Amino acid sequence: MPRKKVRNYSVYTKEACRLLGLLIRNARKEKRMSIEELAERASTSPNFVRRVEKGGLTGEIGVAFELAFIVGVPLFQPDTSEGAKLEVLGHKIHIAKDKAALLPQSARKTREVLKDDF
User: What is the distance, to the nearest Å, from the Cα of residue 46 to the centroid of all Cα atoms in its chain?
Assistant: First the structure.
């Protein structure tokens, strides 16, 4: 049986996951939605929803984002109408793609020049 890899997360990452979990929990409760109902709508397990709401650091990020979307937690833009949300997100994707086009295709460490003159 393979051993589980132990990861060290920064305090920022832990706090961001904790905040996302709290936002999802509060929005779910405001909508009077049970954990089981949210899990069913997101096609995941109730245990995963509980882990996300507690700020868990494991699991698929796509499912966590889907949970946030279902309960109405705005992730990358201010709370606006559905069409505006997609427009803002599309604009941010466009900006990120433009920036990626300016960056090198791959990132490699530069080779250290050997000094072999004795």
Answer: 19
Is the Cβ–Cβ distance between 46 and 36 less than 8 Å? yes
Cα–Cα dist 72/29, whole Å = 12
Token pair, residue 74, equals 């705005």
Question: Is the torsion defined by CA of 60, 63, 68, 69 positive or negative?
Answer: positive
pTM higher than 0.85: no
- Please give the Cα distance from 34 to 96 (Å, whole number): 36
For 45-59, how does the pLDDT look when each residue is reduced to its tens digit (9 = 90+)? 999 999 999 999 888
Helix ranges (DSSP H) in 1-118: 11-30, 35-41, 46-53, 61-71, 82-102
